[in-house]
Amino acid sequence: MMKKLENNIFSKLDAIEKRLDRMEKRLDRMDQKEAIAFKTIQAQMVRIKNGEKLPDDFVLNRRSYNDMSPEKAFNVFQDKDKDFIVIDVSEKEFSSKVEMKEALHIPLEELGLRLREIPNKAASIMVISEDGTRSILACEMLNHHGFYNINNISGGYKFWPANRSQGSGNLRSA
């Protein structure tokens, strides 16, 4: 009888311990999500403080990156007074009519391994790819790794203004 009672008590303690472990893991995941949300809100507040106009849905939905039209990105790219980093996450084999020599060329598949090549987590970053699909994934990955001033160039090289008007020649250095 005593042995049965001990087994019952130990099995209940074991079940409680397992349940506590699961709860701790859930709390850890919640803490991580909260930390990411807080960093995203901080970054949005800095952007707003610096006069950047963010779409309502960007702030309300705590989006981690901004979608930028190719025209707006091109204007930023051409503005010598703007400080930013361009990351091209296109496939290695991809070649565009317009070459961005000053961009960091890091294929999406290598981005996680080459994050150290990005000089500043707080810098304004514009991400471009062939058609904008890979750059969306790159923006999400960058945000997950602590980059919070990220801009996806919607449509990528496919809709890049200098790509459509071939006469524009070389682009300026960042």
Number of helices: 6
The number of domains:
2
Tell me how many strands there are: 5
Strands of the largest sheet, in order across it? 1-5-4-2-3
Content of β-strand:
5-15%
Question: What does the average pLDDT come to?
Answer: 85
CATH architecture of the largest domain: 3-Layer(aba) Sandwich
Class by SSE composition: alpha/beta
Uncertain runs: 167-174
Highest-level CATH class of the largest domain? Alpha Beta
Major sheet attributes: 5 strands, parallel
What is the radius of gyration? 23 Å
Write down the CATH topology of the largest domain: Oxidized Rhodanese, domain 1
* CATH H-level homologous superfamily name of the largest domain: Rhodanese-like domain
H/E element order: HHEHEEHEHEH
Distance between the termini: 80 Å
Would you give an account of this structure?
This protein has helices spanning 2-49, 56-60, 70-78, 108-111, 133-144, 161-164, and strands at residues 66-68, 85-88, 104-105, 125-128, 150-153. With 174 residues, it is of the alpha/beta class. The protein has two domains: 1-63; 64-168, Rhodanese-like domain (Oxidized Rhodanese, domain 1, 3-Layer(aba) Sandwich).
Please tag this protein with its features.
alpha/beta; 2 domains; about 45% helix; 6 helices; about 170 residues
